[in-house]
Amino acid sequence: xxxxxxxxxxxxxxxxxxxxxxxxxxxxxxxxxxxxxxxxxxxxxxxxxxxxxxxxxxxxxxxxxxxxxxxxxxxxxxxxxxxxxxxxxxxxxxxxxxxxxxxxxxxxxxxxxxxxxxxxxxxxxxxxxxxxxxxxxxxxxxxxxxxxxxxxxxxxxxxxxxxxxxxxxxxxxxxxxxxxxxxxxxxxxxxxxxxxxxxxxxxxxxxxxxxxxxxxxxxxxxxxxxxxxxxxxxxxxxxxxxxxxxxxxxxxxxxxxxxxxxxxxxxxxxxxxxxxxxxxxxxxxxxxxxxxxxxxxxxxxxxxxxxxxxxxxxxxxxxxxxxxxxxxxxxxxxxxxxxxxxxxxxxxxxxxxxxxxxxxxxxxxxxxxxxxxxxxxxxxxxxxxxxxxxxxxxxxxxxxxxxxxxxxxxxxxxxxxxxxxxxxxxxxxxxxxxxxxxxxxxxxxxxxxxxxxxxxxxxxxxxxxxxxxxxxxxxxxxxxxxxxxxxxxxxxxxxxxxxxxxxxxxxxxxxxxxxxxxxxxxxxxxxxxxxxxxxxxxxxxxx
Length: 543
What we know:
Largest sheet: 8 strands, mixed
Radius of gyration: 27 Å
Number of helices: 19
Strand content: 15-25%
Helix content: 40-55%
Mean pLDDT: 84
Number of strands: 15
Low-confidence stretches: 1-40
Strand order of the largest sheet: 9-10-11-4-12-13-15-14
């Protein structure tokens, strides 16, 4: 065990001692896996989530009781001012909060019935030093590492994330292709490897397809060339060959026959030799063992207990496989046997970059992050997040760095993914226009709390919380161009010393004495319409 430095909690400006973080911190001792579960069509269920940051200025209560759910195939918009906790919510769900100084203190995060906070109560303890306002955090790093290992079963494949800052999420020393290929192999490696092993090019099917491609290239007919390359890929039973052939012949309309040797060279990666085929079979076994371990981790988070026997058996199988096939990692062998797999992932990367409307995707795939603009980097991040076809996509300001036309294309791509495979989307943004366009429901956040949740049309038609009304009154409307825009007075409060009661009451034009004393409960004010405000007296939401 290791103790972190003890941050000091200074007195509040009014001279009173601030509320201690320990009442919430002690709740960590409650077994989070015992919380009630709503599986059904709910992909993500967040309840009473509390995330604090222990700084030397005090304890920042960034999230203080956040709760919402996301259903399969649904887009939930998460909106609010800067500093309200939207990105902290996303990082808490994926357990990417930097520790220290941050810690998820309490709550339940259920992903398809698996509690992502399983074992949270055993990862750290919190104590106040007697006679002071100092808080001592004792972290058990072995248990924290175990939790991070379990999260490998969820991140990327189950829950994927588009980060707000692509420059900090991409590695500058690896090419774009290398980084997207890593995600592809990690989450779709079995399907990619099986596809290579099943490739069966025959002269009877491939030769007519090649002649068809050359004919389309001579005519400089782009759509016809696309169709011809698809037939070529079908003849070889390897879809990525079509993408590669298209970019070989795209600008060869003057004399496409010159490109014929390149076409035949590309075809060779579908005609595997015995040694490379044996390597792919070995790689397929390794990936299946990795999938087995992920399933064990998911089972542990669902059942709330460590399955040591299964883990031990899985570890012995993986070690045995590694020792048996060690020669594939030898210098001079590894590069050769992995070449078909590397080329396959390169051209799958190109196809992904095409889907996010990147011009010249081959050059971008072979390039490096520093060679791209901020908007192109953002599209690369979106391609990487969508590559694994996740069940939940967390999009943190995905279109901030993009121009309007590209924003529309990206949002359409996310909508298509949702309709095609039922991906649920948690969309974090400041843009209420984007929310109105793509979201099914909206969750309004303020200062680490949920203020209002409603279906998107209902929220815009009948906003209830004064904060929601202020947000909508601050944006221009096409049907009322002469409308005077209003602003919300004041600013987001200091979350080291948050206001008592409703956190919005210092800025609220309708604040009452009760608002200053007690936090309002979430009440039901319509079909799926919830609000936390004392101006309404509907039945309390039981969740």
